[in-house]
Amino acid sequence: MDKLEKPLETWREELSDTQFHICRLGGTERAFTGEYHATKTPGLYRCACCGTALFDSDAKYDSGSGWPSYFQPVSSEAIASKDDLSHGMHRIEVKCGKCDAHLGHVFPDGPAPTGLRYCINSASLKLEPRG
């Protein structure tokens, strides 16, 4: 996937304050406050920054964590991951595969078939309803 790069100032102009804080500065929204944490609308979740398809609602489930959770992305190219050693712990950060927007983290405590829980900030997503 070809990378999309823009200066930080351009991202600041294009995104809301919350989206900029989360997607470009690696912030996190509070649990149970995001727009999509309880959404059951069928559709495709796209990157709020660049529109790349990231997760399908068919892979969404209620993890009880307070953030939208998915057991798999739409493709392996849709996301990138890297070690996150912040806050005194080891986690795996999940980023958009095209624009490197911070999405959230992935944990090994999800349901079958993958056993993974992609814990994603609502502000980093835009739902495209099906139909």
Would you write up a description of this structure?
By secondary structure, the chain is mainly beta. It has a single domain, classed as Metal Binding Protein, Guanine Nucleotide Exchange Factor, Chain A (Beta Complex). Helices cover 11% and strands 31% of the residues. It contains two helices and nine strands; from the N terminus they run ααβββββββββ. The strands form two sheets. Strands 3-4-8-7-6-5 form a six-stranded antiparallel sheet. It has a three-stranded antiparallel sheet with strand order 2-1-9, with no helix packed on it. Strand 1 (43-47) and strand 2 form a beta hairpin. It is globular, with a radius of gyration of 14 Å. The two termini are 27 Å apart. The model has no long low-confidence stretch (mean pLDDT 95).
